[in-house]
Amino acid sequence: MDFRPCSRVACQAPAVATLTFDYADALAVLGPLAVTKSPHSFDLCARHAQLTTVPAGWSLMRHAALGGDQPQL
Ligand SMILES: [Zn+2]
User: What InterPro entries does the record tag this protein with (predicted)?
Assistant: First the structure.
């Protein structure tokens, strides 16, 4: 598998999760690293995945494989 860095500026950590925006439903889905890149998805490292927040009016759904909302420290 190709190395995919976190998409946050200045972050060199490897991506472990993919954040996808569903604009129709105002839903952001944080799941395991996607196999294919989509224009509406962003790869994130573990730290940035954990820090992810969504705009007001949006819902964030975390995949169970990422530990839900439990801190991973
Ligand atoms: Zn990062």
Answer: DUF3499 (IPR021888)
